[in-house]
Design a protein that fits this description.
Layout (H helix, E strand, L loop, with lengths): L1 H45 L3 H26 L1 H10 L3 H26 L3 H6 L4 H15 L2 H16 L4 H23 L9 H25 L4 H4 L9 H31 L5 H37 L3 H28 L1 H5 L6 H33 L4 H25 L3 H33 L7 H8 L3
Helix pairs in contact: 1-2, 1-8, 1-12, 1-13, 2-4, 2-6, 2-7, 2-11, 3-4, 3-7, 3-12, 4-6, 4-7, 6-9, 7-9, 8-9, 11-16, 12-13, 12-15, 13-15, 13-17, 15-17, 16-17
């Protein structure tokens, strides 16, 4: 019997993992393509001038917290739509999408008001006037892309929550092509356009956002797979009833993401106390770790979608299995990247720097990154599962405690106070991520146990195993 149970559980894990990976792979590729756009901007700015590169880096550092906060609010719409899809409520889905579009434009206005007025902050930070000009003009140009990028996110959540994830991948590929060509024209002054330097990258990014939004809008309105939803499209004013639900889930989710990003940003700032080599080595290692993070990050969206759909149709056993399978799959994927970090660190850092001191430190930090790859995979996978259950408030508190209550003090204590330097700072990252990973996973266990204890839980594990193995 035990052997049967073990074999059945493994088959179920393989089945659920393959479905999650199939759904999540296009999302992962889309994330990597969007990260590649930022990489292209940085590389091209570096070929203009050091002031352009510095201005772009500073502007990006200011833009990302604002963008990620709004992103966190809007992607929570995905869990709402996924549960409605599982319950077969098509009209409710369309209503939530329309309300999400209203909210996206409010968030766009808030973002514009913030990004367009950061020049005084730049002067307070003491940067060179030319760097401030580049950063400020870049952010001004970026403001024009806020309305479409947030509207695109809503339509993307609509499509992906119905398990239609490939369009985002294809549209991101189009965006990358537009990004490269437009950067070439606007940054360097080709095809009759003026040479705008890094500021041209800001205009290009806004242009890419408009292209991606228009492409996704046309797809949602014209694709036959959305035909059953198109009949419910009608103008409706903002409704607090729906907006409140989106914000109830989205605001804690957005600030939860900000708490994690804030830890990494603060550690990066503290690296400045150890000198230029420490900053450079840290930047190399964190860039590599950020790239591999896109794998479980994309997978977490697929986990959220599938968990939400299962809960929406009342399949609570499936809800738990899908969540656990997704978390384990995220850890396994990051175990592969950790293995690469451990076995090929010199080869990886050689792509970023020729300085022997920088490379030596970056190799040490990659070993540390290999340790927290597993924790990072677990925590983001568990967060995706919790988001699928519309649970974001407790995870937000968990993130604040894990990252700011424990992770940051540990980083300062080990790195600065006990003088272990950059490696000691990364101990804080490992501790913070590990605590978050354990607590998020435990939270998912508690919530799914509650679901299974309800009398309306539809399917037993044995029934589902028999469906998978009718013979």
């Amino acid at each position: 019997m035990k052997q049967y149970n073990l074999s059945s559980r493994f088959k179920r894990f393989s089945h659920e993992s393959s479905l999650t990976l199939k759904l999540g792979l296009p999302v992962i590729i889309a994330h990597l393509l969007q990260t590649l756009m930022q990489f292209v901007d940085t590389i091209m700015a570096g070929h203009v001038s050091s002031h352009d590169l510095a201005g772009l880096a500073i502007a990006t550092a200011l833009y990302h917290p604002v963008y990620l906060l709004m992103l966190g609010i809007l992607i929570s719409l995905g869990s709402i739509i996924a549960q409605l899809f599982g319950a077969g409520k098509q009209q409710e889905i369309v209503t939530n999408v329309i309300q999400g579009l209203w909210l996206s434009q409010v968030l766009a206005v808030i973002s514009i008001l913030i990004l367009a007025n950061l020049e005084p902050v730049l002067y307070l930070m003491g940067y060179e006037p030319e760097v401030i000009r580049v950063a400020s003009d870049y952010l001004q140009a970026l403001c024009w892309g806020m309305p479409p990028v947030f509207a695109f996110l809503v339509l993307r959540m609509f499509s992906e929550s119905l398990s239609i994830t490939r369009p985002t991948m294809y549209i991101s590929l189009i965006g990358l092509g537009v990004n490269i060509v437009s950067n070439y024209a606007l940054m360097f002054g080709h095809f009759g356009f003026p040479a705008l330097g890094a500021v041209g990258a800001g205009w290009t990014t806004s242009m890419v956002h408009w292209v991606m939004f228009c492409a996704m809008l046309i797809f949602c309105l014209k694709a036959s797979m959305f035909a059953s939803y198109q009949k419910f499209i009608a103008f409706s004013r903002p409704s607090w009833l729906y907006l409140r639900e989106i914000l109830r889930i989205g605001i804690p989710n957005g600030f939860g993401i900000a708490a994690e990003v804030g830890l990494f940003a603060t550690v990066s700032l503290l690296m400045g106390t150890f000198g230029v080599t420490a900053i450079a080595g840290h930047q190399v290692a964190i860039s590599v770790a950020s790239l591999t993070f896109m794998l479980p990050m994309g997978l977490s969206i697929a986990i959220s979608i599938r968990v939400g759909q299962a809960k929406g149709r009342g399949d609570y056993v499936g809800t738990r299995y899908i969540g656990y399978a997704g978390i384990i799959l995220s850890v396994l994927i990051m175990a592969v990247t950790a293995t690469v970090f451990v076995n090929f660190p010199e080869m990886i850092v050689a792509l970023y720097s020729d300085d022997p001191d920088v490379r030596s430190l970056a190799v040490q930090l990659l070993y540390m990154a290999a340790v927290f790859q597993l924790s990072d995979g677990m925590q983001v996978g568990a967060l995706g599962a919790l988001r699928g259950l519309k649970d974001t408030r407790v995870p937000f508190v968990t993130n604040v405690v894990a990252y700011w209550g424990v992770g940051l003090p540990t980083a300062y204590l080990v790195g600065v106070y006990f003088n272990f330097g950059p490696v000691g700072m990364w101990v804080g990252l490992i501790v913070g991520l590990s605590i978050a990973a354990v607590l998020h996973s435990w939270r998912f266990r508690v919530l799914t146990r509650r679901l299974l204890s309800q009398p309306e839980a539809k399917k037993s594990l044995d029934d589902q195993l028999l469906q998978m193995n009718p013979d």
